[in-house]
Every structure is written in C-alpha cells, then in structure tokens.
Amino acid sequence: MILEELNLQEDDPGDVAATLLEEALFPGHALGREVLGTRETVEALDRRSIAAFHDRWYRAPNLVLAAAGAVDHGRLVERVAAAFADRGGGEAPVRTPPDRLPTEGRTLRRPTEAVHVAWGWRSLDRHDPRRRALALGTHVLGGGLSSRLFQAVREDRGLAYSVFAGPHLYGDAGALTVHAATDPDRAGELRRVVETEVAEVAADGITADELEIARRGFEGARLLGLEDSGSRMTRLGNGQSLYGRVEPLEEFVERLRAIRLDEVNAVLAEVLAPDATVAVVGPGA
Questions:
Q1: 189-220 per-position pLDDT tens digit
Q2: Mind listing the domains of the chain with CATH numbers?
Q3: Rg for the chain (alpha carbons), in Å?
Q4: For residue 135, what pLDDT is reported?
Q5: Are 233 and 67 in contact (CB under 8 A)?
Q6: Do the Cβ atoms of 263 and 133 come closer than 8 Å?
Q7: Contact criterion met (CB below 8 Å) for 15 and 279
Q8: Sign of torsion, CA 118 114 151 146?
Q9: Is CB count within 10 Å lower at the N or C end of the chain?
Q10: With 0-12 CB in 10 A as exposed, 13-18 as middle and 19+ as buried, what is 81?
Q11: In the sheet where 105-109 sits, what is the strand order?
C-alpha cells in the first residue's frame, strides 16, 4: 500500500515539486526527507523492525487521545487506562534542528502539460510568539481568493488555476511556501509575477485593511470549527500534543486581536527578504 502511495505521488508533479523543495530547504535533515520514505527503505522493512518500532514509541506517555461529542469522559479514561496499563515507560524522540543552509533549488524535466513551481523560505518554528503574525501575513499574501497572489496570478493575468501560500511550523524549524502551475510557455511570466508580489510584501508589507480582513477570517474559522465534533477533537489533540495545553477560545481571540500591523510586516520582511529556494517540475525545467 505504501509503495502504491509512492507511485501515486510520483505521478503528481505538484507533489514532486513540493518534495524537491523540502529537500532543498532542509538538506541532509529529516524535515527534507519524504515522509513516506523511498521504495528502497519501504521494501527493506520487515515485520520484526516494524514491531520493534511500535513497541518502542507507541506507549502511553508518548500518546495523546482526543475525543469530542457524546462522550462519557470518566468511562473513556477508564477504558484507555486499562488498554494501556502495560504500556508505560516510553521516551521522547531526540530532535536535532537543521544545521545547514538551504540549497539554491531543484529542477526536474518531465513531459507534463504544466510547469509546477514551488518557492520556499526558511521560517519560524511553532513555538515562536510571532507565528500568528506570520500566519496572518501569509494569508494576505496567498491564503485565499482575495489574496495578493490569487489576484495578480489568476484574476489579473489568468496564469494559473490556483496559487497558494502557507506556513509550515515544526518543533525546531519552519518554512513558508508558495505553489502554482502554469502553461510551459508562461512559466517565466509566472515566476516574475509571483516573485514581484513577494518582494513587494517583503519591502512594503500589507495594509491595515488587509490585516483586519485576515484577522476576521481566522477568528470566524475558529468559531465555525467549534460546530463540528471532528474539528473540536482535532483542536484538542493538536493543542495537547504540540503545545502541551489546549488554548482556551477566549485566549486565542485575545491574542489574535492584539497582533499589530507593524508586527506582521516585520516578520514578513524577515522571512521573505532572502532569495527564495525554488523547485520546478515540467518540460524545459
């Protein structure tokens, strides 16, 4: 099954471009390696090694179980405790931050109908107090139908069906990426337009109106998410596993509303000022 997933991923030039970008952003580091592994590493696995891995890491102190909905909390705790009664101990994985600078980028020639381009910058880790300011700024840059990139790339020029930007926050590092695909004859124009928009945001920042629209969108999305049990469960699990606590809704809103325009523009300038690492997949790449 994993080998089939690898095959499917290899058939998607957008996924290939994303993988090449990660390899270039985090050279020689686990963050730069494909999560699924490679055909060689997957085929080398046997039952004994998988069972040993499971026995070492899948223990009660390393796990977070989240539930939302019509749940009897006390009964759930009792059943989980019984199920993991003999699964104590455990150890935290030792993480090593990336220690090498990004490379210039990667290209891969393929006879695809479109050229897929991915830009990336090293960014903040998930514990950085400026992470929400960066998220708001990134949303204005390429996070929706009214974003700078969507308007410049799709609405104004018809260069791509979709273009999007997003932050990726890890425990000891981070990245901000932009992805788009276009006709091979217009690949150069796409790169110029995206890189011009990014440079303008890095140099001049976003406006107060753009920040307010993004802020309201973030707040509304969190509130709407509370209407869905699955979203509530995900929020509980992510908060506990990534930050060791579940942030109360009131605290989230208060912190979001406290973010200033100068804070957003400062972190955008810091992250986007360096030259991007670029991965390209397609004909003539």
A1: 999 999 999 999 999 999 999 999 999 999 99
A2: 2-35+97-282 (3.30.830.10)
A3: 21
A4: 98
A5: yes
A6: yes
A7: no
A8: negative
A9: N
A10: exposed
A11: 105-109, 277-282, 115-122, 174-182, 163-169
Distance CA 104, CA 285 (A): 14
Separation of CA 200 from chain center: 23
Q: Distance of alpha carbon 212 from its chain centroid, rounded?
A: 23
What are the two backbone dihedrals, phi and then psi, of residue 137, each rounded to the nearest 5 degrees?
A: -65, -40
Beta strands in the chain (DSSP E): 105-109, 115-122, 163-169, 174-182, 277-282
Place of tokens 């030259």: 275
Which stretch of DSSP H or E encloses residue 53?
helix 47-57
Q: Which two tokens stand for residue 150?
A: 């969507």
Tokens of 37: 């592994």
pTM above 0.90, yes or no: yes
Q: Is the pLDDT of residue 285 over 80?
A: no
pLDDT digits (tens, 9 = 90+) for 91-114: 888 889 999 999 988 999 999 999
Give the pLDDT confidence of 117-129 residue by residue, as tens digits: 999 999 999 999 9
Amino acid identity for residue 48 in this structure: R
What are the angstrom distances between the C-alpha of 147 and each of 7, 10, 216, 255? 33, 30, 14, 23
Helix (H, G, I), strand (E, B) or coil at 275: coil
| Whether 107 contacts 280, CB under 8 Å | yes
Question: Hey, CA dihedral for 53, 57, 59, 64, is it positive or negative?
Answer: negative
- Cα separations in angstroms, 189 against 45, 72, 141, 169, 170: 45, 57, 18, 30, 32
